Amino acid sequence: MAVAPSDDVVSVERFIPVPPEKIFDLLADPARHRDIDGSGTVRDAKSGSERLALGSTFGMSMKMGLPYSMVNEVIDFEENRRIAWQTKPPVSWGAKLGGGRIWRYELEPVDGGTLVRETWDISQEASLSKPLVVRGAKKTAENMDKTLARIEQIVTA
Questions:
Q1: What is the spatial order of strands in the sheet that 2-3 belongs to?
Q2: DSSP string, 47-73
Q3: Where do runs of H (alpha helix) occur along the chain?
Q4: Band of the pLDDT at 6, cuts 50, 70, 90?
Q5: Whole-angstrom Cα distance, residue 147 to residue 8?
Q6: Of 20, 80, 118, 123, which one is least surrounded by beta carbons within 10 A?
Q7: What is the average pLDDT across 125-147?
Q8: What does the alpha-carbon distance between residue 3 and residue 86 come to, in Å, rounded to a whole number?
Q9: Separation of alpha carbons 94 and 103, rounded Å
Q10: Closest among 85, 60, 56 to 71, alpha carbons compared
Q11: What pLDDT sits at residue 88?
């Protein structure tokens, strides 16, 4: 279910019938991000793929047509409640060309499980890539729905 999109922020929510700890453990393990990715673009975790914490950085091999890499930094973290990372290209000059997206997961305990909200925030996206990225908001929301469904499938198996 999509939630109040703006030009820069899109969120989707899903009720998952497990405690937040089970979901958070999956989100905090970058080696499992390929398993949960509904877009099909995430390939493999690279360096820094230990359990995430505030300030952690981790690399990710990606593929959207052509293969590429991103470096992510955890910028928001509250154990079992909230985790967010910001993507950047692996080279400093690349930040002018693309990156800056923030992926956030918020977990709210509710009767019988957890309300999970995934948010895609491009308010800090690089100015050169932002016009192209913003055009993908609808597809991104669809892929986020798929991600939450995959998370549910994994944690309820």
A1: 2-3, 9-16, 113-121, 102-110, 82-88, 66-78, 57-64, 42-45
A2: SS-SS--TT-EEEEEEEESEEEEEEEE
A3: 20-27, 33-36, 130-134, 137-156
A4: low
A5: 20
A6: 123
A7: 88
A8: 21
A9: 19
A10: 60
A11: 85
Read off the tokens for 32: 């499992």
Cα separation, 117 vs 102, in Å, equals 13
Report the alpha-carbon distance of residue 73 to residue 87 in Å, rounded. Answer: 7
Task: Give the tokens for residue 79.
Answer: 């154990």
Q: CB-based burial of residue 154 (10 Å sphere; 0-12 exposed, 13-18 middle, 19+ buried)? A: middle
Pair of tokens at residue 3: 């939630």
Q: Can you read off the two tokens belonging to residue 33?
A: 């991000």
Kindly report the number of other CB atoms within 10 A of residue 21's CB atom.
14
Q: How confident is the model at residue 4 (pLDDT cuts 50, 70, 90)?
A: very low
Query: What does the alpha-carbon distance between residue 115 and residue 19 come to, in Å, rounded to a whole number?
Result: 10
